[in-house]
Specification:
alpha+beta; 697 residues; single chain; 5 domains; 5-stranded antiparallel sheet
Amino acid sequence: MATFVLEIGSEELPSRFLPIQEAELRSRFETALAEAGLEYGSMRVMSTPRRAVLMLEGLDPVQRQREEVISGPPVRAAYGPDGKPGKALEGFARTHGVSIDEVFRLQTEKGEYVAVRKQTGGTPAAELLADICPAVITAIPFAKRMRWGSHKLAYARPLQWILALLDENVVCFDLGHLQAGRETRGHRVHGPGPFVVDSAESYLKVLAGSCGVMLDPAERRQHIRQGGDEAAAAVGGRVLWQEPLLDEVQGLAEHPVPLLGSFDAIYLEVPREVLLTSMESHQKSFGVEDAQGQLLPNFLTVANVDSQDVEVVRHGWERVLRARLEDARFFWNTDLKDNVEDWLTRLDSIIFIGSLGSVGDKTRRLAALCRWLAECCKVDDPSLAEAAERAGRLSKADLVSGMVGEFDTLQGIMGGIYAARRGESPAVAQALKEQYLPAGPDSPVPTSLLGALLSLADKADTLVGCFGLGMIPTGAADPNGLRRCALGIIRILLEFGLRLDVSAIFDKARQLYGTQEWKLPPEQAQEKLQEFFVARLRNYYLTQGQDTLLVDAVLNASAADLPDTLARLAALTSFSQAPGYAEAVQTFKRVANIVRKQAAAEDLPETWDAALLQEEAEKALARTLADLLPRLDSLCREGQYSLVLESLKEVRPVVDAFFDGTMVMCEDSALRHNRLTMLKALGSRFARLADFAALQI
């Protein structure tokens, strides 16, 4: 068995490109090797900013051989009446490079045909890899590709070298202006090279030794963690590791060196969130805190070189961070001197979206909508409505602060911090911090009810305004983040269990726009927004692994109360896995279809007339319904949907007997109306749970 190594050397790639490069190399090589019939034991894919490496161990040096039977024309066409080979047989043999004597007869289900046996495979692995490698490399789908010089080859960054070794031999191929060879290059300082690699087996040793490169991302990650923990422990602290940032940092270095820096303790007067943002977002560094959770005047960064004068490197990092912290301290002290009413006034000069007024107008709408939502929640807390109104009005005030102007990712967070410093209630301050949550499908939702209501109001106001102006997402285009807004509302309502009518929320938000001139008529915009929201709710449930048919059945019934949709979906999902589900669905699909088709055409009364009951089957159904319907109404009010669905088993035999023993669509209109009324009364109860007509069994 052989070992193969491919190294793609380039100028430094952004760290966010490395996972894409690794995943594509792996998947495309797996596919190509399978198609080529090349068997191997294991595959490793690793990368640094300057190289992507694929290693195959236990590789079969020769493509596996297979015998393939190829059928040709029918025997009757291959041979003449005299039994001698005809032109069809001669052409078939000539096409496949065999003699007439090598052709045999093959009996199939369709009759007897002539056929030949051909041996395929046996091509040396080196020949196959010489075709696979350039095809895979040029097909990697980076978000951005570039060309350089006069070369036509495109890649994420300019390619510098290609190494391709199968044991001791070079796998020869050309890639644009480059030719694969056995030379690699190392770290720009610790081993620039180039270095000759004798064999694929010795590649990793050369890279770790002469090149001074730590190839494995997992090893770099662990090295940074271990060195960082040791450095922080030396000053009595612990590193505030952020996993996404750690992934990014390990992708920035081929030779990672954890380095602990410090800054003047005077900057600790600046809020923790600001300090960490300066370190993490701008310096790609980590904060350090003590055992009590208080930030220390230290930070951990990662250099890409072992410096002979570590203090010079350390001081360089400290000098850059100090400048950022000095700016932050200046904005912090300046903002604290400002008056919040001045900030609110300045919001009136900031445009919200299109013709939807100013950000100041938005905060006034949010104040009213938040109060209305708080009142709808019917929480036993008289101060909630006032606090909600205050949170809505203050929600965007920090947008005009110096701190948010410098650190825009802190909007909302700084609003909460400033509110607390100015004496606002803790609930209002917390709500301001949480108003932009959730920011995506995996980000956290607000932890406080007031924060949830403010976030919900903000998103509803944006959705209503944009849909009113016809700014509706199409395809992948969603410049105002309306899909994210809808998802945020969905997650908040479900995770807080808020029994609020979504359509009523949108209608109230639209009313608060007052005399706003709309591009779409309000009724049309409301209808499109409701369709859009239900589509996002459907998508949300499907991404949670729910069954498509069950989701559609539940949402077709009603999508106004989201916690209720979740309860109905859970009950229907459980019922779908129980014995008798298919039979029950078939019966009540029949009920639903008859009611849907006839109820609109017939003016049906509210209740049936017992005096018009004739057949024993319809009398039995009437007796069953008289007992069952009040029970179903009570169970639905209590949300006991599993028990409602269980009752299907109880009533199904009676309904089946009714269909078998009674002519529903009889010519006598009074009898027909009476029988349809019973079916409508029954079907309407179960229609509250799901649209049975949407279920396919």
